[in-house]
Amino acid sequence: MKLFSLDERLLTCAGLVQKSARLADIGSDHAYLPVWLLKSGRIESAIASDIGEKPLQSGRLTAEKYGARNIEFRLGSGLSTISSDDNITDIVIAGMGGEVIADILSHSELVKNPGLNLILQPMTRSDDLIGFLYENGFDIKEQKALSSKGRYYTVMLVRYSGKRLSVSSVFKIVGKLDLTEEESVKYINKHIRNLENKSRGDESAKRLLNELRSMINEKN
Ligand SMILES: C[S@@+](CC[C@H](N)C(=O)[O-])C[C@H]1O[C@@H](n2cnc3c(N)ncnc32)[C@H](O)[C@@H]1O
Q: Are residues 61 and 143 in the same domain?
């Protein structure tokens, strides 16, 4: 069976997974990401984990259809399905709200390991997630933005540093995006448009808007 293509969003997540990783894909659903990484020879083995039996079953079908071995399916919430004995090197948590991702991280001791790569892709509330990450000792090592079919996404490569920081409202939106990249500018402009709708009469939102606008203008 010819291998399928990943969409831009999952492809960006895949691009941040280390070569030869032992991967845990949390909230794996259809398991496209681990099956694609395994079948294209980029990783050695994977655990696909999901809170729902139905999504897990759909993941099993994908693995079967494309003949992906070295993939284990586990049922349960968040990182409760993974132990240190699994020797995971990379964890992907994609396609969920920023608050759900933060909740999953907050319930795991395993993620407090500076050697572990966390690849996070929030569908909403990325600002809340970034705030959570820095308040809880995580650091964004690399961040990308992309747009696909009229939607805007960000993907972050995160590691635990143990250093807790309080970050500004601007940083919660911009994070470590490279503002010389067109996709980053599009992503920030989308936040600017959302804020313009919300900021009427709200002085702190207006200040935030002005800061974001001048950052974009300075870089371009
Ligand atoms: C929209 S799908 C995303 C699938 C895939 N990760 C992607 O990005 O395309 C979200 C999946 O996360 C699962 N999920 C939601 N909350 C979860 C949790 N706390 N722990 C594990 N899985 C969860 C859902 O059952 C669903 O299958």
A: yes
55 neighbors 29 (Cβ within 8 angstroms): yes
Any atom of ligand 1 within 6 Å of the Cβ of 79: no
Rounded Cα–Cα distance for residues 164 and 181 (Å): 28
In a domain, 43, yes or no: yes
Tell me which residue has its CA closest to atom 3 in ligand 1. 95
- pLDDT at res. 220: 67
> Does 30 share its domain with 126?
yes
The three-state DSSP-derived secondary structure of 54-71 is HHHHHHHHHHHHCCCCCE
Is 159 inside a domain boundary?
A: yes
Decide: 120 in ligand 1 pocket, CB within 6 A.
Answer: no
In this structure, is residue 220 part of a structural domain? yes
Model confidence pLDDT, tens digit, residues 128-181: 999 999 999 999 999 999 999 999 999 999 999 999 999 999 999 999 999 999
Domain of 138, in residue numbers: 8-165
Percentage of residues of the chain with pLDDT beyond 90: 91
Q: Check residue 64 and give its pLDDT.
A: 98
In a domain, residue 89? The reply is: yes
- Asked if residue 94 has its Cβ within 6 Å of ligand 1, the reply is yes
pLDDT value at residue 110: 97
161 and 183 belong to one structural domain? no
Ligand 1 within 6 A of CB of 59: no
- At residue 172, the 3 state secondary structure works out as helix
